[in-house]
Every structure is written in structure tokens, then in C-alpha cells.
Amino acid sequence: MKEIATAALINMSINEQAKLALAYVPGAVDTVIRTIGDSQSKELKSVAAGLLYSLIINDELKTIICLKDSLWDSVIGLLKETSGKCKSEALKLLFVLAKDERWRNKLMQEDNELISLLISLLTAGMPKLTEDCLTVISLLARSGAGTKAILDDKSSIPIFVYLLNSGSPRAQENAASVLNNICQQDGNVKEILPLQTLIPALNSLMRGGSDRGKFKAASLLRVLDSDTAPSLSTASNLSDAEADLYPEMSSELRSAESVPVMPTYADAESSSVLQVPQSLNTVSTPSSEP
């Protein structure tokens, strides 16, 4: 019955006025967050998270919700669930939070293991989750704390390079975006990147990617001072602002007009594990010299 009631609330919350009314009912948002954090039912957790997402995409409500201390542990806990559907809903919430600089910094302060959790999902063998994990990581990499946490995980760079070479088209774009944002935050990162592998992959993305992929590839090539780097104006029809407007998330998340219907993912236990080639698993330590 709880699942049915929560699903009904989700449908009601599609209406903007009903959504505002729901958010201001005393204790309503707290109950939803508590359900995400404490329920023993994975199905109920994911449905409640979908409801919270339908509220948090409203900028006015986002501030109210993000000031609730219980939110952060509940979202991170949802990401830790073995259910692929729970992970998917957690990534949707993290995407909305990480787009905003204030809440992005709050995420990095609240849970030091967030980056490690996201990176571990990249090798779980679930393509859609991989793509959306890269989205969130790319946004977190726009902060100094996010970049530091990424680089502290020694497996991160080899995984990003592997996905840029061998991932799905959207994963390739997103991996380029992650590496570009990391390099923008820390210039020394260029010294540990395997350029012999990376530059051909970026050139391939330039030739066959989407406008956004071409833009991100060109931007990273310029950061790497590659001789093959084109100008950004010739690489893509997108402006820098347009390329970053909806950074890397599934197209379903690009509209704040309705609650997206996301695909149901297989549970993590039944997924194949991505094997990163050994040749990409060794990186040198960046120099401390500027």
C-alpha cells in the first residue's frame, strides 16, 4: 500500500502547483527523505527517491530540501544499495545537486567516499549507470575538492581513459568531459595522462562524435597542447555554455517539466564487471613543479 500511495504522490507532483503544495505540507519532505534512508524495501526507496527528484528539480524547493541535514546521508545510502534502480534514482538526485556549485561543495564536504563509490560503479558492467556516473563525476570535478578526491583514487584515470577509448558513445563524451574538468582544476594532471592512448581516442571522437563530443574532445586536446588540437569554433557548432548546459546526463533528465521514466537496471550482483587493461593501470605521479 505504501508503494501505491507514493506512486500516486509522484503522479500528483508532476503538476507544478500540486508539487509546491506537497512540499509545504509539514513533515511531508522529511517523511520522503526518511523513507529513502530507512525503508527496508528497495522498491519503496526507489519510488520515494523518484518523488524527491520531482520536487528537487524545482529551484525554489531545492533550497528548502537541501537545507535538511538528513538528505545527504539518505542519497549516499541509496547509491550504496545493490538494486540498480536505487542507484539510478540516487544518480538522478546527485546530478541535480552537483549542477549547483553550493550543493556540489556540500556533497564533497558531507561524504569523502562519494567519489570512490561513483568510480566503483564505472566498472560494474551497467552501461547506463556508467554513463550517468561519469556525468556526476564530471560535475564534481569542477571543484578543487572533487578533483582531489578523484585523483586520490588511483584507479580513476585508467578507467576514464579506458572508457574514452572503448565506452559507449555517450560514455566517451562524458569521460572526455571528466578529464577536461580535472585538467582545468589541476594542470599537473597532464603529466600522468597516457597521451599515446588518449590523443588518438580524442581525435577519433573529433571525427565521429556528436557536436558536444567534438567540443569536449577539442577542448581537452587544447588543454593537452596537442599539435592536432583544432580551434573550438571549428570543432563544433556549440558554444562553451551550450556544451555545458546539461553536462552529460541522460536525455531523460534534461527536462524539468515532468518526472522522467528511467529504465530499470539489473541488480549489480548480476552484472558483468568491466575489465580495464593492465597497460592502463599504471600511471606516474604528477610532478610538484608548476
Automatic annotation (TrEMBL):
Domain annotation U-box: ranges: 14-225
Descriptive protein name: U-box domain-containing protein
The keyword Isomerase belongs to this UniProt entry's keyword annotation: no
Feature: compositional bias, Polar residues: 269-290
Positions of transmembrane segments: none
Region described as Disordered: spans on this chain: 268-290
Stored InterPro entries: ARM-like, ARM-type_fold, ARM_PUB
